[in-house]
Structure formats: C-alpha cells, structure tokens
Task: structure prediction
Amino acid sequence: MMGALIATYLTATVEWVEAYTIVLAVALSIGWPRALGAAGSALLFLAVLTTIGSLILTMIHDLTILQFIIGVFLTLFGVRWLGKAIARGAGLKKLHDEDAEFAGLRARADIHEARAAWWIAFNGTLLEGLEVWLIVVALGVQTHHTLAASAAAAVALIVVCVAGILARKPLAKVPENTIKFTVGSGILSFGTFWILESLGYKWPLGDATLLVLFGFYVLGGLALIRLYSFKSAASGVA
Amino acid sequence: MQGFIKTLFGDKYTLGVAGICIFVAGALLHTPAAILAGAVLPVSLLSGAAYLARR
Result:
C-alpha cells in the first residue's frame, strides 16, 4: 500500500507543478480569482470523475478482470512515462522546462482574453489532473485504498500550492524527469505484476516480486539512458 | 476529448507496444514454458520503453 501511495503522491506532484505553471500564466492576465475559479472547476470535475471511475470499477465483481483492466492501464501509463524519461535523461528529447512553458503561455495571444484564458486554465488543470485521476483510481481501487490515494494527491496539491505561493514563479527546480523515471518504473512494476497475476501466473516471490520488478526497470532504464547518451554523443562527435 | 483519450491510453505506439507485450506473455502462459512469462513480460516492456524513447 505504501508504494502505491508514494507513486500517487509523486505523480500528483509532477502534474500539479505543470498545472500551477498554466494557472500562474493565466492569473497574470485575468487575475487570481478567475484563474483559481477555472482550476477549481477542473478539480471539482476530476473529483466527480474519481467517484464515478471508482464506482464503475467496483461494480466489476470478477476481481481477475478488474485486476487485468487496471494492470493494462498502469502498463500503458508506466511504459509511456519510462520511455519519455529515458529519452529526456539521454538527451534525445529536451527536458521539460517550466520556465519555457510559462514563457510560451504568456506569449499566446488568446491568454489576454478573459474567456479564452479561463479555458486555458480549466483545460490545462483538467488534462494534467487526468493522469493523477488515473493513478488514484487504478491504484486506489486495486489496493482498496481509494480515499488514501485521493488524500496523497490532495497533499501533493497543497504542497505545490504552498510552494507556488512562496515562489510566485514557475516551479522549475522540481526534478521532474527523475520523478517521472521513478514513478514510471514503479507504475510499470504494478502493471506487470497485476497483468500476469490476473492471467493465472504465480509470481515465485509473491508480493515481494514488486520490488524485484521495480529494481529491474530502474536499472534497465538507467542502462538505456547511458547507452543512448553514449550513442548520441558518439554521433555528435562523428 | 483527444487529450482525454491520449491521457488514458497513450498514442498508437504506446498501445502497440503494450498490446504486443501482453499478448506474447499471455500466449506464453498457455505453453509448457509458462514459467518464463514472468521474465518475458518485464524484458519486453523495457524493450518497448526503449523503442518509445527512440521515437
């Protein structure tokens, strides 16, 4: 359970930092009350979505099917984050830069229009929050701790809000790629474990296999970062 | 809506990678080498992540 809560908290932190950048950029145009109103509406929508998602999943009485569905969603999420983090770690893709994101948003012409800016904040918070929603519902339902997972996401939101209030600028110092690499490995471990278990596979070490899988993805990911860094450096020299 | 679907399922490459890996591991479970599925799925998913990173 602790692993699921840590994964939820870290995922939420990364996503709320990105959402904060959007809300901050919008707030400078239409003011904090409207920008926070848009972000609050998106969060309310996500809370409703979490409730509905959890209800739908708990209506699936066959635990094997539920485990398989959740495993597939976590695998899709984990492999995507791990791939992205490897690419950024190796320099194949640019690191996500909150300052650049902020500058890009501020340069948009429509951000100075009240209605368009409201939608930018709403859509931005909603899309960033969807990944949090996915993790909260998937890990929460499977571990029977949806409330605790929601609380972990809420704590991350509070931490980011406080940091944002203190910094009053994009939170560019958050080690986003390291977090995405770690969370991607963790989520992929849960996905791998639950998919095979739901298909009838008996893991030799039981639940302890999760740690082995996590170690495998972290070490494998680090090896790939080294390999790709070396290759891109070699091609740069050539 | 497109953003919603992409967030839930990823792009076609992510879906392809996960689909192939799960299918291969699932098929392996119905063979005498079923025990290998526990190694094949993680290795194939890591290879999939490597492929996605290069794209």
